[in-house]
Amino acid sequence: MTSMFNKLKQFKDLKTRAKDIQSTLAQESAEGTGGWGKVKVKIDGNQQVLSVTIDPEALNDKTKLEQWIREAMNDGVKKIQQIMARKLKDVGGLDLASEFSDIMKK
């Protein structure tokens, strides 16, 4: 019975750490650009789009605009993933998966 209680406590601790990490990541953001800056997309560390800015000049060509939005999104996601990787390393988030695995083995 004590072993089960310990596992439940460990799960709760992991859940708390995961929420802390998610909160830390939400504070980060990155801006991706497309069309030489004509389209800008700001993304937070939870990969939620915070804002989209489109230069009025970009509205003249639908096909190019679509391409530039795609470029800006991909650029922003790539940048925020790099930030997330650094942050996760700093706060020990990469250890969560191994800790979870260790708990399941016990």
From TrEMBL:
GO terms for molecular function: DNA binding. It is found in: Cytoplasm, Nucleoid. It holds the Pfam family YbaB_DNA_bd. Coiled coil: none annotated. It comes from the Bacteria. NCBIfam families: DNA_YbaB_EbfC. Binds to DNA and alters its conformation. May be involved in regulation of gene expression, nucleoid organization and DNA protection. Homodimer. This is Nucleoid-associated protein COX00_04450.
